[in-house]
Write a structure and sequence with these properties.
The chain is an alpha/beta fold. The chain has 12 helices and 5 strands. The longest helix has 27 residues, at 108-134. The chain starts with a strand and ends with a helix.
């Protein structure tokens, strides 16, 4: 699954240029205003933001400040692009919490390299934390609070997997956390928001059923809580880069080779 990047610029030509040099390696969302960018960040699992500085209403500095002051998005790296070359301007950008500051005109390969480095760094930090959680010996009785929380969440999801009404609100109540606290904690531990995590668990279960059960695709979709086959197929392809039918064929072919 391609990393998701949000491009923000009030000039359509610049957005088109950025999309052209980045869309082979990343899934791209675009916004022409700061408010539009914040709306996309609230709805999509964006992993990095590239924003122009000079924009009307809300400039890139203010957008970056809002991203970094919101615990739901504060983990997302921000690269600021601008024609301002003064050291004071660059320092102002970095003080807002931006991960990097690139002056125009910029080299496309340099931008790609900086984006890749930031994404790799974030992934490494998440993987390191996850390994630390799993480092406890299996025979130890004492578990960390984070481990116990994830186990409690997983048990609840497994028990309610087929329920199409399974919601973040109900999960929050079950684990005794506010929705915003659960959002922050799951994002910290798994790199996914609660909505993404629930969907990911459902799709992982669906992949097992597709490989090992005799149910058809529609039955499997409903059994893991998807209300329509089309939405299930779309979600499955986003996660596994293939449709459920393609996955079934792949598993059967691999089975024949064994």
């Amino acid at each position: 699954m391609l990393p998701i990047i949000l491009l923000v610029d009030d000039e359509e030509e610049i957005l088109a240029f950025l999309e052209r040099i980045l869309n082979t390696r990343y899934k791209i969302f675009k916004a022409t205003t700061g408010q539009e960018a914040l709306a996309i960040l609230a709805a999509e699992a964006v992993q990095l933001v590239v924003s122009d500085v000079m924009m009307p209403e809300m400039d890139g500095f203010e957008l970056c400040r809002k991203i970094k002051s919101d615990k739901r998005t504060s983990h997302i790296p921000v690269i600021l692009l601008t024609a301002l070359t003064g050291e004071e301007d660059q320092l102002k950008g970095l003080k807002t919490g931006a991960s990097d500051y690139i002056t125009k005109p910029f080299n496309a390969d340099m931008l790609n390299a900086k984006i890749n480095n930031l994404l790799v760094l974030n992934k490494t930090l998440k993987n390191t934390y996850t390994r630390q959680i799993k480092a406890l010996a299996p025979d130890l009785v004492i578990h960390s609070a984070d481990e116990e929380l994830l186990q409690k969440i997983m048990r609840y999801l497994e028990e309610n997997l087929a329920n199409p009404q399974l919601s973040v609100e109900e999960l929050s109540k079950h684990v005794g956390m506010s929705r915003s606290s659960l959002y922050s904690k799951l994002l910290e531990l798994t790199g996914e928001t609660p909505v993404e995590y629930i969907r990911s668990v459902k799709l992982d279960k669906a992949a097992v059923l597709l490989a090992k059960s005799d149910m058809n695709i529609a039955q499997i979709a409903y059994s893991v809580g998807f209300s329509t086959s089309n939405y299930f197929a779309k979600s499955f392809k986003l996660k596994f880069n293939m449709l459920p039918s393609e996955y079934v064929s792949k598993m059967r072919n691999e089975g024949k080779k064994k």
